[in-house]
Design a protein that fits this description.
alpha+beta, Thrombin, subunit H, six-stranded antiparallel beta barrel, 28 strands, 32% strand
Length: 514
């Protein structure tokens, strides 16, 4: 056989080289795309399972359904539609109920503007709607206080469209929780599953169910956006105790009192407020807080809270530095201790730092106030404090927040009740009252009684603190009496400025015509 010529050998070499380069390039490319096993020098990645349906991921179930279908089926029957007929007083109209707020408002839905009653009528009723959660088979329903407050009649519609008249068992404006009851035995499958709001995490699924804008039994989905929100300036005076869950699940007017659920269909919150200035910002009362209130409302029809009698202040970096505390120190600074209060009797002093109360670590003022309020009056509670660089333990017997007068010393006694004017009876605000009600200073007069047939009914409420009348400062009962005497023949409306649930607001009261 003749030997290959030089040109043939050169051709073979070129072809062989191209094939070899192609094989090498293919191996490198496939290794880069992870089509072949990486070398031992690379980090081994976990295998990726593309069979989402078989694995029942959060996006679909084994049958191909969204997992929220199961939540809807479990929760729908536990949610009710609440309609309340609210009696409104003289000169009150829908604008008074729903006046604009720069940031916050509760979910109410009233009548259209063209159906608003004549503001000249003395009394009339206004319907509003909300939602509720069935929490027991004997007909107890959890909702918001602002859904049913001042209602003459409360009507509950179940998921099966049957309607019942409900009885108000009790309400707590300081947490915006209310408990109502229908005389109807509910199927156990329609009783809500109560979850644990202490276990929720930011990023967890959040499912809201309710009756927004009259659209019965609507379900929306989002996540837990934040926890422990407090200090929200809600229109009309928000609840004193705030520890809201924030969510981006879409909620609107009419969702109030409805459940915020987790992916298991358990109730973790009670929808309560929105920020109408931004989308995807809603707030719910943690279910653990709500159920503590429910237990008291069911047993006694009211809520009693512990009272200490001091003014807490945030423990800032400057305070820590000045007091020689570490930068990561937690607690609240004691700004002031009121006389003849449980705080003073227990040995608490101004400039103390409370680091633990009732076995709970104290992180900030809002959490500390919640901790005190969680204990019933009469409880003996131990607190850990830091004083002059040394740690101490103090024991307090808590008072009743609702009966502050029992802790007022002789030098702190209120002036006698005022003479009746516009159907109002008042007392001067004392130092202890001011601290307990978180007022900026202990001035003004507190409303102790409102005549339901008087001119101020429906406008001024018991426990309102009057600080101005027709722009004149009111610091005591004497100031109140002076204005009452000078305005005894007044015919036109009188402008009051009051503090209600920690928020300043105005009310106009029209005297009775002679």
């Amino acid at each position: 056989m003749p030997k290959p010529t030089g040109s043939i050998r050169k051709s073979f070499f070129i072809v062989f080289s191209l094939v070899a380069l192609g094989v090498i390039a293919g191996v490198l490319l496939t290794a880069r795309m992870e089509w072949t096993a990486p070398t031992t020098a690379q980090i081994t990645a976990p295998p990726v399972n593309m069979n989402y349906t078989a694995q029942a991921t959060p996006f679909v179930t084994e049958s191909g359904e969204s997992p929220f279908v199961a939540v809807a089926e479990r929760v729908a029957n536990t949610v009710v539609n609440i309609t309340s007929n609210r009696k409104m007083g003289q000169t009150t109209n829908m604008e008074d109920m729903f006046r604009d707020s720069p940031f916050w408002e509760f979910f109410h839905r009233g009548m259209p503007d063209q159906q608003q009653p004549d503001r000249r009528r003395k009394d009339f009723t206004v319907p509003s709607t909300g939602s509720g959660i069935i929490i027991s088979s004997d007909g107890y329903i959890l909702t918001n206080n602002h859904v049913v407050e001042k209602s003459e009649k409360i009507t509950v519609k179940l998921h099966d469209e049957h309607e019942y008249t409900a009885e108000l068992i009790g309400a707590d404006p300081e947490t915006d929780v209310a408990l109502i009851k229908i005389k109807h035995d509910v199927d156990p499958s329609s009783v809500a599953l109560i979850g644990n709001s202490e276990k929720i995490k930011i990023g967890d699924w959040a499912i809201a169910v309710g009756n927004p804008l009259g659209l019965d039994w609507t379900l929306t989905v989002g996540v837990i956006s934040a926890k422990g929100r407090s200090g929200l300036a809600i229109q009309g005076g928000g609840p004193s105790y705030q520890d809201f869950i924030q969510t981006d699940a879409s909620i609107n007017f009419g969702n109030s009192g409805g459940p915020l659920c987790n992916i298991h269909g358990e109730v973790i919150g009670v929808n309560a407020a929105i920020n109408p200035s931004g989308q995807g910002i809603g707030f719910a009362i943690p279910i653990n807080m709500a159920m503590k209130v429910v237990d008291q409302l069911r047993d006694r029809g009211k809520v009693s809270r512990g009272y200490l009698g001091m003014q807490p202040r945030e423990l800032t970096a400057e305070f820590k530095s000045a007091m020689g505390l570490p930068e990561d120190a937690k607690g609240v600074f004691v700004e002031k201790v009121d006389k003849n209060t449980p705080a003073e009797k227990g040995g608490l002093e101004a400039s103390d730092v409370i680091t633990e109360f009732g076995g709970r670590t104290v992180n900030d003022v809002a959490q500390f106030r919640m901790a005190v309020a969680d204990f019933p009056p009469g409880s003996e509670v131990t607190a850990k404090i830091t004083r002059n660089g040394k740690n101490k333990e103090l024991t307090f017997t808590l008072g009743d927040r609702g009966q502050l007068a029992s802790f007022m010393g002789k030098g702190n006694e209120p002036e006698p009740a005022s003479e009746t004017w516009l159907g109002l009876s008042v007392e001067s605000v004392t130092e202890s009252m001011g601290r307990a009600m978180d007022l900026e200073d202990a001035s003004g007069v507190i409303v102790t009684d409102v005549d339901p047939d008087g001119p101020a009914a429906g406008k001024i409420q018991e426990r309102d603190v009057i600080i101005e009348i027709d722009r004149q400062p009111i610091k005591s009962v004497s100031d109140f009496r002076k204005v009452a005497d000078s305005y005894k023949d007044r015919k036109k409306a009188i402008l009051f400025r009051v503090i209600r649930n920690g928020q300043k607001t105005f009310e106009a009261v029209e005297p009775e015509k002679g």
